[in-house]
């Protein structure tokens, strides 16, 4: 393709781009260098306007989200049905750009109709609240836009990740180990499954699974659904996930695990992995890790602990006993973005092995990225341990919070959340119409609200069917009112019940009282 | 009586907001303004052990005072590489778009996950609009898709969906009893194809690498050959990966020809356009991806050429029968309740292998709203012209040698210092030339004047790969680039 370069010079003054002096801009246009009709030495973006937009938008973010975050008089959500919201938002992406003020208005609209997960009465998921330190770390991350594959491109974030992993490893109780941050606990669990498979039979990396004996893994029936997704994704198949029954507290029964391992062996399958959960998603149950570790040792199975939710209890000297035995695990998934409020995503996979297993399992040694002839020690280029190429510096936001609060500060958060959970449990027991599913051991409080119309009814199929319909209606009402949000679900034969989760240090007794009052208010006529 | 701590919020709002305000000023000044200032350094190089000491990384029992934390912010920014700098040319991303930045800051502040309408109403709707726009540019009137945490994962998704489509039962049964599954991709493909084959249990041995021509493009006749070879070995060819914009050379595989081969053999046709996809925005240059509408799936990363910021990686599917949902769905009852009070078809979270998922659409959407398709087209065209300009300049300059004529915006060249000029005949010429780029790279990083990547490729020794995507780059920066390489390498 012919290239036409025209240089139109009137003087030599091509000043630095970011000078807002009008004179400079005029001169730059006069000295235009054109290639195929495209101006090369003039700006096509106005950096001053860009900076102003950032400043104006940040004012909006500050006022509309951050300052309102702790305010209970604000709504948690401004509910709109999907078809209506589509019209309100002007989502269409057009040929031409829109002016400054219009863009700021769009930002306001987006904020207005988004759920305020920072709100003290947002209890819907396993994350909530606002942490100023992690938020600052996230703003820094966005401004710097790094990718954590090599030391040369992201020296600071790589070292930060190593420091954070090391500390997390200490809390698990390992002297040394390895790890990486992933885009989600589900992905961490997949990594662990693949790692266990690789350890079992390293040839699988090259040969694949076709023609090999059927690998089988074991996990509790209360496990996170990522176990199933992982089994499919990895080519193992969901049929080869053997679910172990749990007791009335939602904990894996070790004797059942032993039975299932034996059964798998008899079938001629190859057991290779047990995944225990420390903090199940719905009930917040902790599997008995010591007993499970005994079984794994006896049978030579990899023990992975999905502590995505419960791992943060390790920060609390009072509550860490929930994870007693975790040091015997081969790998652990732990998500600081949940209980420790590090900001989505912040998910670590920790591995006890220190023989570079993670790297051997995942590396592809791309010569355009992991050159061996760099001028620094390339063992710092940890990116090849990951299945990703570009990767976000997710450890940094956790590091920032940890620096600011110290281990003691993080411990206090965990203790407070669990103390508030205890308070709520005691209140529920006192109140008519509220019934606990089970005594919680963590921050999940599962309960039914039984409206007065049902309180005299006998607990039979009709009662349960009617009760099943209560939570969805109350949920709808609370969302349309915008007063709070908490989740409900059916679970293992039990009809819809609420799952209250306490995380944020903003939350106080008043909010717990409000929770119960509001549910009663919204549901009493049912 | 001791005050009951549970009766009050344990969050110091005022202090937190003050901290945020101060930190924001630091970020704006040190990261944004200085980071984009051509008179500042691109990087402030320190050896790893030195940097560890400077940063004071240790996580201790007690917290640190506000001022100290702000100092940490300053240090982190100072010693980080300024990927928004006009002279950062090291990766396939660079620059800082203010609208995308705001989109990202809003995303962080709202801190939600993309799985359900109830939790992320705006973003669930927005993601659909954005994906639809990207599909239109590919040439599909309908289809499906999702944002993934990276192009590598998009490619791996494609492989998994292709496998599921061919063998839907394998979701439950696994692939033990299946014939050996075979994957086909060019030898210049991104390494995520290897990582994907290993992860999915297919095995890297079952990747058949297809030869490329002297321009780095897949040879369709060789693809045909490899597929037939795989069949004769009893393997099942189910997936072909074509690359639009290879990582090093920026080559585009001939999509129409590859599509023909795929159709003939009933193989899934995936196009890894993670890097080159953005050329679709340019009416002048979209011909590079001619035939892309025949693909079954496409990976496209706006966080590369379009500067949205990491991560923004779309996995796009031509299928609109819900294949993605069927392939990945697990129907978790605690998240995807079917008795919600709104149409749960809006809860798209089960299409992904992730549970919690970051909102990646807002930054692209806001940037697109600000610039319009036309504005983004201008950026793409400009990047091409930068490359053209540089290529012409390189041809004029002594000591610079193009590896190949670029068809995209990867400019690959050797710098041959005086001591080696005219010595091509020498036995150790290439070995000595291979040492030049690493030495220049070390010097430029220690000086902090710019950053550009180098790598070997096949039998070719280390050469530079210059990539310009940042629209604030000017001709001055390009001239500087060539001058600086000379300056740093002339005495080698």
Automatic annotation (TrEMBL), chain A:
**What are the recorded Gene Ontology BP terms?**
carboxylic acid metabolic process
By its UniProt entry, which InterPro entries does this protein fall under? PyrdxlP-dep_de-COase, PyrdxlP-dep_Trfase, PyrdxlP-dep_Trfase_major, Pyridoxal-P_BS
One MF term in the entry's GO annotations: carboxy-lyase activity
Q: Which UniProt keywords apply?
A: Decarboxylase, Lyase, Pyridoxal phosphate
Q: Name one GO cellular component term.
A: cytoplasm
Its cofactor is: pyridoxal 5'-phosphate
Q: Which residues carry this modification: N6-(pyridoxal phosphate)lysine?
A: 338
**Record-stated family:** Belongs to the group II decarboxylase family.
Subunit-structure text: Homodimer.
Q: What is this protein called?
A: Glutamate decarboxylase like 1
From which source organism is this entry? Gopherus evgoodei (Goodes thornscrub tortoise)
From TrEMBL, chain B:
Mention any one GO cellular component term assigned to this protein in its UniProt record. cytoplasm
Carrying N6-(pyridoxal phosphate)lysine, the residues are 304
Q: Give the InterPro entries listed for this entry.
A: PyrdxlP-dep_de-COase (IPR002129), PyrdxlP-dep_Trfase (IPR015424), PyrdxlP-dep_Trfase_major (IPR015421), Pyridoxal-P_BS (IPR021115)
Cofactor (UniProt): pyridoxal 5'-phosphate
Matching entries from SUPFAM superfamilies are given as: PLP-dependent transferases (SSF53383)
Q: Which UniProt keywords apply?
A: Decarboxylase, Lyase, Pyridoxal phosphate
A GO BP annotation: carboxylic acid metabolic process
Membrane-spanning parts = none
What molecular functions are annotated in GO for this chain?
A: pyridoxal phosphate binding; sulfinoalanine decarboxylase activity
Please give the superkingdom of this protein's source.
Answer: Eukaryota
Task: Give the family, as the similarity comment puts it.
Answer: Belongs to the group II decarboxylase family.
Q: How does it assemble?
A: Homodimer.
Q: What is this protein called?
A: Cysteine sulfinic acid decarboxylase
**Species of provenance:** Gopherus evgoodei
Record gene name: CSAD
């Amino acid at each position: 393709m012919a290239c036409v370069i025209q240089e139109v010079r009137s003087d030599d003054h091509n000043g630095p781009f970011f000078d807002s002096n009008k004179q400079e801009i005029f001169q730059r246009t006069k000295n235009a260098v054109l290639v195929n009709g495209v101006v090369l030495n003039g700006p096509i973006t106005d950096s001053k306007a860009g900076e102003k937009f950032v400043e104006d938008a940040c004012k909006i973010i500050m006022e509309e989200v951050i300052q309102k975050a702790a305010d209970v008089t604000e709504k948690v959500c401004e509910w709109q049905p999907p078809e209506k919201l589509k019209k309100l938002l002007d989502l269409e992406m057009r040929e031409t750009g829109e002016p400054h003020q219009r863009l700021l208005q769009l930002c306001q609209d987006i904020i207005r109709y988004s759920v305020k997960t920072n709100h003290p009465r947002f209890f819907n998921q396993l994350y909530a609240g606002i942490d100023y330190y992690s938020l600052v770390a996230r703003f820094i991350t966005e401004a710097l836009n790094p990718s954590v594959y090599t030391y040369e491109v992201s020296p600071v974030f790589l070292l930060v990740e190593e420091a954070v992993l090391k500390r997390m490893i200490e809390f698990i109780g390992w002297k040394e180990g390895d790890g990486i941050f992933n885009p989600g606990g589900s992905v961490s669990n997949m990594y662990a499954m693949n790692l266990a498979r690789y350890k079992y039979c390293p040839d699988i990396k090259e040969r694949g699974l076709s023609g090999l004996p059927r690998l089988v893994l074991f996990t509790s029936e209360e496990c996170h659904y990522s176990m199933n997704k992982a089994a499919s994704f990895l080519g193992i198949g969901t049929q080869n996930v053997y679910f172990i029954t749990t007791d009335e507290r939602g904990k894996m029964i070790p004797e059942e695990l032993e039975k299932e391992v034996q059964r798998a062996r008899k079938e001629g399958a190859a057991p290779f992995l047990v995944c225990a959960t420390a903090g199940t998603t719905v009930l917040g149950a902790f599997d008995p890790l010591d007993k499970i570790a005994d079984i794994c040792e006896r049978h030579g199975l990899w023990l992975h602990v999905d502590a995505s939710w419960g791992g943060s209890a390790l920060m609390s000297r009072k509550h860490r006993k929930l994870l007693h035995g975790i040091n015997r695990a081969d790998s652990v998934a732990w998500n600081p973005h949940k209980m420790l409020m590090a900001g989505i995503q912040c998910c670590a996979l920790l591995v006890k092995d220190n023989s570079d297993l993670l790297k051997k399992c995942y590396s592809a040694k791309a010569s355009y990225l992991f050159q061996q002839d760099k001028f620094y020690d390339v063992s710092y280029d940890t990116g090849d341990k990951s299945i990703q190429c570009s990767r976000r510096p997710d450890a940094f936001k956790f590091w920032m919070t940890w620096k600011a609060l110290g281990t003691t500060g993080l411990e206090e958060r965990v203790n407070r959340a669990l103390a508030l959970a205890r308070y709520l449990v005691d209140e529920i027991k006192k109140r008519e119409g509220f019934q606990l599913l089970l005594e919680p051991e963590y921050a999940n409080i599962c309960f039914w609200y039984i409206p007065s119309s049902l309180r005299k009814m006998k607990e039979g199929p009709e009662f349960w069917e009617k009760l099943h319909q209560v939570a969805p209606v109350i949920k709808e009402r609370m969302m349309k009112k915008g007063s709070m949000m908490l989740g409900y679900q059916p679970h293992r034969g039990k009809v819809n019940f609420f799952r209250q989760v306490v995380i944020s240090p903003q939350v106080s007794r008043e909010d717990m009282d409000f929770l119960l009052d509001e549910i009663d208010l919204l549901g009493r006529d049912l | 009586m001791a005050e009951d701590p549970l009766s009050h919020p344990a969050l110091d709002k005022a202090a937190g907001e003050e901290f945020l305000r101060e930190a924001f000023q630091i970020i704006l000044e040190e990261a944004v303004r200085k980071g984009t200032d051509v008179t500042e350094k691109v990087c402030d190089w320190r050896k790893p052990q030195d940097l560890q000491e400077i940063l004071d990384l240790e996580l201790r029992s007690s917290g640190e005072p506000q001022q100290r934390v702000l100092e940490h912010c300053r240090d982190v920014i100072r010693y980080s590489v300024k990927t928004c700098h006009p002279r950062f040319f090291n990766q396939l991303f660079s620059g800082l778009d203010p609208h995308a930045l705001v989109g990202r800051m809003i995303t962080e502040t709202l801190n939600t996950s993309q799985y359900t309408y109830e939790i992320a109403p705006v973003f669930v709707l927005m993601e659909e609009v954005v994906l639809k726009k990207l599909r239109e540019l590919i040439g599909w009137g309908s289809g499906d898709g999702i944002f993934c945490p990276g192009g590598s994962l998009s490619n791996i998704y494609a492989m998994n969906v292709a496998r599921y489509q061919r063998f839907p039962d394998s979701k439950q049964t696994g692939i033990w009893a299946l014939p050996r599954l075979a994957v086909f991709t060019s030898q210049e493909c991104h390494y995520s194809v290897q990582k994907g084959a290993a992860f999915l249990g297919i095995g890297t041995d079952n990747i058949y690498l297809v030869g490329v021509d002297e321009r780095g493009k897949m040879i369709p006749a060789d693809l045909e050959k490899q597929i037939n070879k795989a069949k004769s070995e009893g393997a099942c060819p189910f997936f072909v990966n074509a690359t639009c914009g290879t990582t090093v050379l920026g080559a585009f595989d001939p999509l129409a020809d590859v599509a023909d081969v795929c159709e003939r053999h009933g193989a899934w046709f995936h196009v890894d356009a993670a890097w080159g996809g953005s050329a679709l925005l340019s009416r002048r240059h979209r011909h590079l991806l001619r035939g892309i509408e025949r693909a079954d799936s496409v990976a496209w990363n706006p966080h590369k050429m379009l500067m949205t910021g990491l991560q923004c990686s779309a996995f796009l599917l031509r299928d609109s029968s819900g294949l993605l949902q069927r392939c990945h769905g697990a129907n978790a009852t605690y998240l995807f309740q079917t008795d919600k009070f709104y149409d749960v078809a809006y809860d798209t979270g089960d299409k992904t292998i992730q549970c919690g998922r970051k909102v990646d659409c807002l930054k692209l959407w806001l940037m697109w709203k600000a610039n319009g398709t036309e504005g983004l087209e201008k950026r793409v065209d400009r990047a091409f012209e930068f490359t053209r300009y540089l290529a012409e300049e390189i041809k004029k300059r002594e000591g610079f040698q193009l590896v190949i004529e670029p068809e995209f915006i990867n400019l690959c060249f050797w710098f041959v210092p005086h001591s080696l000029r005219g010595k091509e005949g020498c036995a150790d010429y290439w070995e000595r030339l291979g040492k030049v780029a690493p030495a220049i790279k070390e010097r430029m990083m220690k000086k902090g004047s710019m950053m550009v990547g180098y790598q070997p490729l096949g039998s070719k020794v280390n050469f530079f790969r210059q990539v310009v995507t940042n629209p604030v780059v000017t001709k001055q920066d390009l001239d500087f680039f060539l001058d600086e390489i000379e300056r740093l390498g002339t005495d080698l």
